[in-house]
Design goal:
This protein is an alpha/beta fold and 413 residues long. 29% of the residues lie in helices and 25% in strands. Strand 11, helix 8 and strand 12 form a beta-alpha-beta unit.
């Protein structure tokens, strides 16, 4: 976001223009940011054969998937529906990594039939996979390394008590099942959680993967997940991608020499690619002065952006109608019948009813976690690309709320 002559804009388009054209609340994504993040990650790993698999759960709009597919990315998916969305967006089955958790085995069967890469994270499914497919279909094995790292406990996935992956303490059982059914293991996967602050956590996880990988002779790749931290406010510590690239590339290349066969290295970024591209544009509906504080009420809520309420996440909020006005302290709250507080004690340019505000870093886990709570409509989505605004999702209507409800014939009951 830039401020030019007192006007906040993206690729030369002001937020006022966007509000006039598409209404509010509105999700907006800057394609230039997504492309820059993808290229930065690729460049950081230029010394290894790297594949970037976008974690689709962060934001599944077809336009975003297509943008990344055209850039050369693969995709990481966690449900059969995301598999189908990825295929529709143009990804080849070989580009798709399917890592489900606690699903029905029929999803695995469907994904196998579609030809996507299967990633198995529990012993019962590994055994059933072996019984059904033997060595005719390759699979990856997801390992839980028992590493306590990452940010909020709700997004830590590699600790001992996590539901994700096969415990490192059960790796002997993995070897036994693989041997019993001659399972073709073509990859080993680890993802310890989001918001890592340094490269050393990845290197530690890599050492766990390397020791396991040496036991499989037909590997094609090692997958280290993601969790790269981005800044949500000034002063936030972020993952140094260039340092990560150097350390992990050196570590990986050394392992490949020991392994004796060429391998690819995979990463699965979601937040890193799309978070900073996104903005939630809202409008001030009321200024409420109380003895305790001053509230800015806006025409959105936890139904559109739940991260502050669910994770205690911080999102910078900017008054884009009056960005140079004197600063004042506010609590910014939503219109849902819950305590849906977007931010407390925030210093924002003095705001009046009708002013437009943007919530930054809203590209990841914003719309994708939205709902119709309080029977509110989900917002439209717009992609800014090559200096033009493109509507990529229509705003919901009352018809959308009622579409799947079935009327009861009361007179016949």
């Amino acid at each position: 976001m830039e401020i030019v002559n007192g006007i906040c804009q993206l690729q030369g388009i002001s937020f006022n223009q966007l509000a006039e054209s598409f209404g509010t609340p509105l999700y907006i994504y800057n394609s230039a940011t997504i492309i820059a993040q993808y290229d930065r990650l690729k460049n950081a790993f230029s010394k290894v054969p790297v594949r970037i698999k976008y974690a689709a759960k962060a934001l599944t709009n077809q336009a975003i998937l297509e943008l990344l597919q055209r850039r050369g990315a693969g995709v990481d998916v966690v449900s059969i529906q995301e598999v189908q969305l990825a295929l529709k967006a143009g990804f080849l089955p070989s580009d798709i990594m399917f890592t489900p958790n606690c699903v029905e085995f029929s999803e695995i069967e469907t994904a196998v039939a579609l030809g996507v890469q299967i990633n198995i994270d529990n012993l019962p499914f590994l055994e059933r996979f072996g019984q059904q497919y033997g060595n005719s279909v390759p699979c990856c094995v997801r390992v839980n390394p028992h590493i306590d790292a990452g940010g909020n406990v709700k997004i830590m996935t590699g600790h001992k008590g996590s539901k994700f992956g096969i415990s490192i303490e059960q790796i002997g059982s993995v070897y036994d099942i693989v041997d019993q059914y001659s399972i073709w293991v073509n990859g080993v996967h680890v993802h310890s959680g989001s918001d890592f602050k340094d490269a050393d956590a990845f290197v530690r996880a890599a050492e766990v993967v390397y020791s396991i990988a040496m036991q499989f002779t037909e590997l094609r790749f090692l997958d280290f997940g993601s969790g790269f931290k981005v800044a949500y406010k000034a002063g936030d510590y972020v993952t140094d991608i260039e340092e990560l690239g150097r350390k992990m590339s050196d570590s990986f290349n050394a392992f490949v020499v020991n392994y004796g066969k060429p391998l690819d290295i995979w990463f699965e970024p979601g937040k890193f690619l799309v978070s900073e591209s996104g903005y939630l544009l809202v409008q001030c509906t009321v200024i409420k002065e109380t003895p305790a504080c001053t509230f800015i009420g806006v025409n959105s809520g936890l139904n559109h952006l739940i991260r502050p309420m669910m994770y205690g996440a911080h999102h910078d909020i900017v008054n884009v109608s009056s960005p140079t006005a004197p600063l004042k302290e506010y609590h910014v709250v939503g219109y849902i019948c819950e305590t849906d507080t977007f931010g407390q004690g925030l210093t924002i340019a003095e705001t009046a009813i009708g002013d437009l505000l943007v919530m930054k870093n809203a590209g990841a886990y914003g719309f994708s976690m939205s709902s119709n709570y309080n029977s509110r409509f989900r917002p439209a989505e717009v992609l800014i690309h090559n200096g033009k605004a493109h509507l990529i999702r229509q705003r919901e209507t009352m018809d959308d709320l009622l579409r799947h409800q079935v009327a009861v014939s009361w007179d016949t009951l």
